[in-house]
Amino acid sequence: MKESYAKELTRNDLGITGSHQAGICVPRKDKGLIEFFPHLSTKEFNPDVWIQCVDAKGKNWKMRYVYYNGKIHGVNTRNEYRITYMTKFFRVWGAAEGCSVVFTATDDPNKFFIQIEKPRNLIDNQYKGEVKDKASKVVLTAWRKVH
Asked: Which residues form the Restriction endonuclease type II EcoRII N-terminal domain (predicted)?
């Protein structure tokens, strides 16, 4: 069985808070997670790689894995890994706050299987969450290794 990681999606991840941050954050301090995705050189300014993601229907999605490292290059304060170009995928698969995006490794280090896991309350259409205003607090959720 191939290694998988899941990230519970927040309103910020889904782009519905009005923030200017794009994509989901990949924590720098989680070495296992950083090693799961393709290597990005810290010597290069904002290194990136396009990863190929394949969904359950066999559709290919190109997503950008990037290390915004302006802080270590003295350009700005950013020092974070992100996966961007996910909005259309989220829309097509009906991702909502509380769902998780799951990446599963393949034999190709730049290719992943991708899926959306929906919690029971979203599957059963019982979700009664309120839409909060754009000024609501940003909540960060952790990634988890899927066994």
From this structure: 5-88
